[in-house]
Give the backbone structure.
Amino acid sequence: MGFLKKKKKAYECLSDDKKREMYDKYGKEGIEGGPHASAEDIFAQFFGGGGGFGSFFGGARGPRKGDDLAHELGVTLEDLYKGKTSKMAVTRNIVCTGCKGSGGKPGVSAGKCKTCDGRGVRLLVKQLGPGMIQQMQTVCPDCQGKGENIKEEDKCKDCKGKKVTKEKKILQVQVEPGMKHGQKIVFEGEADELPGAEPGDVIFVVVQKQHETFKRNGNDLIMEHKISLLEALTGFQLTFTHLDGKEYIVRSQKGEVIKPGDIRVIPELGMPLFKRQYDKGSLYIQFQVEFPKPGFLKEKNVTQLAEILGQTHTTVKVTDEMVEKQLQNVETKSRQQSHAYDVDDDEDEGHHGHARGVPCTQQ
């Protein structure tokens, strides 16, 4: 519970007579700035530090807060679309109920550790050599850095003098529709308890697993789909299962031609918006066109294809002065270049007796 919430709760626990007394004392005459004080000033004085109820509740400084405890929560894209509730078991330290955090039996208080004189640390001096020493500060082994000790026979039988015991608790972790990767689900005050300290929070960090069909971009979904050249020219239809389990079918428009890399969108078929799950993003489909393998066309089919497409080959004027070159695949060229570099390296090693780029050492 935050410091401000604790102040409010403390005020709510007062009796009506006490509340009326505090109002008469601070609400009418004690507010700095008089009747023209702003709401921010009044709030700061009542629940902040410096005056009014702030001073009544001990000022702005509260008890120190313990460390937060973070866990990763692996979820699927379906979980983030529909929402999911998981039961997570958390083991934490709680203040011992037997000794109320004192660590000793009733009526027994801890004494100052004699080994470290209550400092919780020891200073060790190590001789490194003649006239050379090293000083190191280590945690006191007798009191484990607490600065105090309890005799073995006086320790609490429940916590064995540790002041805390273990507790296993089941937390209901609610993944809401529209949550995103990296978002945090916080359980306030559910981390380890320490005597005289406010417990930290248990934090679950949402970690989205990779999906085989969809990629997420904000509130939108992206899906890649491969179609044949025939489908790209004459039309296609595709079916897919959405994150909610529903089956959808999509058809291209009549006469539509899909080019490689073309993107089409379906509104309202993306991810739900966080806290506004009835509003959804869009689904984008990016198309890849799969072309036939080389040599699939026979000579007689070329003329037929040209007639169907209404196209002819581009004619160019060739002269004797032109130099003809052969096209190569990029991958083939890259492999040849890589092989050439390997040959050069081998030659260098064979001729000079050392690896290329390593300087010689002259005697």
